[in-house]
Amino acid sequence: xxxxxxxxGLDPQGxxxxxQVRRVRKGDLGKVRDxxxxxxxxxLERQLGTRPxxxxxxxxxxxxxxxxxxWGCFVAEEDGAKIVGAALAxxxxxxxxxxxxxxxxxxQNQTIGQQLVRAAQEFFDENRATLHGVVTYPTSPKHLYLxxxxxxKPKSLTAITSRAIDRGTLRSPAAKPGKLQLTTRxxxxxxxxxxxxxxxxxxxxxxAVCRGLDLAKEVEIxxxxxxxxxxxxxxxxxxxxxxxxxxxxVSEAPAGxxxxxxxxxxxxxxxxxxxxxxxxxxxxxxxxxxxxxxxLPVYSRYWVAYSMLxxxxxxxxxxxxxxxxxxxxDYEDPTHLVLDDWR
Length: 343
Ligand SMILES: CC(C)(COP(=O)(O)OP(=O)(O)OC[C@H]1O[C@@H](n2cnc3c(N)ncnc32)[C@H](O)[C@@H]1OP(=O)(O)O)[C@@H](O)C(=O)NCCC(=O)NCCS
Known about the structure:
This protein is an alpha+beta fold. It folds into two domains: 19-129, 3-Layer(aba) Sandwich (Aminopeptidase); 161-340, Gcn5-related N-acetyltransferase (GNAT) (Aminopeptidase). Helix content is 31%, strand content 30%. It is built from eight helices and 13 strands. Strands 1, 2, 3, 4, 5, 6, 7, 8, 9, 10, 11, 12 and 13 form a 13-stranded mixed β-sheet that branches. Helix 3 links the parallel strand 4 and strand 5. It is globular and about 75 Å long. Coenzyme A binds next to helix 1, strand 4, helix 3 and helix 4.
């Protein structure tokens, strides 16, 4: 007689188990990380034909995200005992970003993913996020369907680009005689009393890119946990731009790479050469941290920024599609010099 093999996700009587969505607690963090790694490992294996050794190449998403936004982190738990899914969400001022979302492979297609997305939606609504966004796999009908069900519309592609750096390939900014030079400074080197004012100046820039967008939480968590640093682009006393950089360890940077989570140049100062110079500054920061690559994500609606990166020798490693819902859905100006990917 054949032994009964329990199908994961069904109890021995073949009934659907009770799955509840609740907020992440401190004791869940390791498990949530495992669920993300395992689920994305399975997904990528199906896509690529081979299983990557690490689904995210060593990038971490859970611990610092939870510290930054504990109310936005959710798990799906089976029978109060087993974590079978997770969703992380964050509000950056008026912008709510969803992801990663994962449901263990054997538990998929039982509406758990939708329960997690719904919890994140409620969190966005409670926090009055007026624009909600997610990035996902453009070739997956399931993903497009799932987010469409919640009102997200597919927009344009985000390109995750990268470039190898070594001392020989570092670009040095060209000095222009008689002009006040652009300089870069690390946020972590500011006196504590100056950091607040710097955050307010960064908010002015992000607000000019998208009304209400505020990256203060990200800058502070990167600073507080030493996940990397935020590079400030200055001319004299003026702040022209900022770049939140993650470096390998326990951040969202994969091993061996500096990853720019968000970069913006003040729209009032949006000259492409400022972006080129700032990218050179980011590469120099990467060299200081001893990484071999710089990863710069760019949304293709920011067409000037996208084109500049390609001109600067950045290659596209992969693409995702951005999906959005809510007010200001078409806020992007193609001439804004912004790098971000919403992962
Ligand atoms: C994406 C993911 C979180 C969804 O979780 P899930 O629990 O399987 O999702 P649900 O069961 O709640 O919903 C799936 C929906 O897609 C539908 N669906 C499944 N396959 C589909 C397909 N090929 N085409 C269209 N719709 C499809 C299902 O019918 C269901 O909709 P319905 O309830 O209206 O019938 C899960 O598949 C996952 O973890 N994938 C791997 C990691 C990943 O890609 N994460 C998201 C990154 S953005």
